[in-house]
What we know:
The structure holds two protein chains of two kinds.
Chain A: H1 5-37, H2 41-45, E1 63-66, E2 73-76, H3 82-115, H4 121-132, H5 140-149, H6 156-162, H7 164-180, H8 184-192, H9 197-208, H10 210-226, H11 229-235, H12 244-249, H13 261-296
Antiparallel strand pairs in A: 1-2
Chain B: H1 2-14, H2 16-42, H3 44-52, H4 55-66, H5 69-89, H6 93-123, H7 136-164, H8 171-204, H9 225-231, E1 233-239, H10 261-264, H11 267-271, E2 275-282, E3 285-291, H12 294-325, H13 332-344, H14 347-357, H15 365-372, H16 389-413, H17 419-427, H18 431-459, H19 463-469, H20 476-486, H21 490-515
Antiparallel strand pairs in B: 1-3, 2-3
Helix pairs in contact in B: 2-5, 3-4, 6-7, 6-8, 8-21, 12-16, 12-18, 13-16, 14-19, 16-18, 16-19, 18-21, 20-21
Amino acid sequence: MYKNPMVERLQKIGFWLLVGAIFIFTMFPFYWAFVGSLKPEQEIQSPPASYIPQNFTFDNYSGEFLDSVTGETKPKGVFTQPEFLRGLMNSAVVSGVTVVLALVAGSFAAYALGRLKFRGRTLMLYLVLAMTMFPLISILSGLFAITRELGVFGSLTSLIITYPIFTLPFTVWVLVSFFRGLPVELEQSAQVDGATPFETFYRILLPLTAPALVTTGLLAFIGAWNEYLLASTFASINVNARTVPVVIANFSGSVPRQEPVAEILAATVVVTIPLIILVLIFQRRIVEGLTAGAVKG
Amino acid sequence: MTMNAQSQADRQRDTQKPQLIAALFALLGVGILVVLVLNVGGSANINRAREAGDTGQIILEFLYSFGIIMPILMLGAGYVFVNVARKLLAKDLVTSTWATQILFWLMVFSIIGIGILLINWVGASDPESKLDVSAYPYLLIIVIIASFVFGFAWRWLSNNRNDYYEGEETLASRQSVLAWNLLLPTVLVLILIAARPLERTFIASLTDQVFAASDEDVTEFVGFQNYARLLGFRIDVMDCERDGTGGCIVDTDGEYDYMRPRDVLGDDYRDLRYRSAREYSIGESQVVLSVRDRDFFNAIENTMFFAFVTVIAELILGMIIALTVNSNFRGRGIMRAAMLVPWAVPTVISARLWEVMLLDNRAGVINDVLYHLGLGAGNTAWLANSDTQIWSLIFVDVWKTTPFMALLLLAGLQTIPSDIYEAADVDGAGKIRQFFSMTLPMLRPTIAIALVFRTLDAIRAFDVFDVLVGRQLQSIATYNQFVLVNEQEFGYASAVGVTIFVIILIFTIIYVKALGVETE
């Protein structure tokens, strides 16, 4: 169909404008955080906003300030704050352990639900689906009581044993659709060769779903890393057990009695950059994993 | 012939083994039931309630200490084990396969039990520990013996099954055994971390338990009182204040003054702490809706409004973005990554980011930009001003979730073949017509699922509310945490939790019915 080249040109310009607008819309806050973390506290808090730092400084990451009360120079900045670094470690530990557990248990369950026939299969599928929609907030009081009774309240263990509530069903659900997507001939030829169902699972199907495991593991990791409700209810009492979201929500900064806007931005940057890199590398996989449940299932 | 005679003799000696194993299962089955009864009968709390003759208290103590799920599971296990014993005596092969698996897991759990006992025992040597380990040596011996017994039985059974038991082992039964083996961890998580806390929450919601209870405070079974306090409401019609001639008094604003329920309705209203929530004036009367928990009422209003607006906004905006990005162009990967970033970053962090950007003077970017655009004086206090608060929250959530919605819709769009559009172009149908008649219907399942998940997520919103507005504007989720952690009212908070669960359940059912979501 013939299109007026002028109209086509305009459409193209319009298209790229829209794309640019979307890009700015999603990424501007991070630009702001990045730029802000390089400004001194004074500059951030005084109007008007500066879009490029006028007094470039790394203080918010690692610097010094003069304590007006004691007259000493003290370290300042996110990298000098032990609670921030500890928060990073805690989050890494909790998320890592949770993901490993979820992948192991989840791949087993997904294989059973996706490829095997047995009585009770439909019921289990419905139960897993129900668990993905489960409101954590509703069982908050029950979990509260149970973690206290087990004596793990206020420790990272409380998070490790409660996070599976949402990481496991999600993992199972995404992996089930991947397992279903594998051709049936694989199992049939394995059966002809005399393999037991478990051997079929372990040696043939599991290696094929390795990319799906990576994707699901990544999604579960992001989910566990971002979790705030349980972390703030169970672990925030003990300062040593806080995960990154809790630390950032309560960030009070190195300089006493001063709302540390610039340091908050610096902390944000530190946490966000690895996530951005991860997302950049794995974006296609992530989208596949997320939409596997929605589109096909 | 010697060989046959030899193995026959062996087999005769060994007929005891199958019987022993059957006996083991029968013992286990009966043993579980005995343990259950002993625990219940020996529970100090239950006995105390029994002496007091208080039926409600008996039920409560039972539910408290044991719940419903564990007793049912134990009864079920007892029954299953006795049945297995019976079928083993009848030499059923399929049952022996199940029996082998069960023995295997019993052995594994016994070994884990040994580990836990040892760890606790070592930890109890720490002076700070309050653990009573006097019974531990005996427990340890019992568990060690048990693990050996299970281990031997398991090994023997798995090696000699086919010789001693009769029947057909089909592929179906082998698949079944494998399936349940694989599902075991998931089932455990389901029971221990999901079902039991839910049960616990529900039971607690029927009590008046508080956390900071002193020794004299006994938790009482109060039935649905918590729910009455949470959800109680009444509707009354108030008359206007009348002057001597029977006409309505007009106040300085030119409007009628109405009687207040507090003054008119008496002790009932006041004792139950009703407070007016909504008022509608119709001429000389005013209809007043009063609720017993106004904070909860506000939380529900806030949450529903938030959910409604965000879901619709995200759907429409997401659709627009998806349609735009739905084509191959250079930099597509980067665009997708850019769209994923708001989703990947913890909500808490995004919230604090926006908190900084919404500063109430021109140091805040939003104010500054609006000022430059000539829309405002650059000093709106977005988060403190009660008119703009909810919109700020909505905006942050839309920022965070629209890209994600767009990606979902995009994936759906890409399953639609492009030839039908070409055909429609040939037929002369305009783009807009194409969208509404072709694209939308084909996207229905994707939109349905996206709607369901987004609505449920929005109703559960916690992070944005907690970080940006805290106690000033509560969602039902932050209200729940507030009652639990700050006011330490365990029973009441549990009632809130159950109510939220029911709300979500209702929405889910409505969606599934209305949108015909398929979950084969």
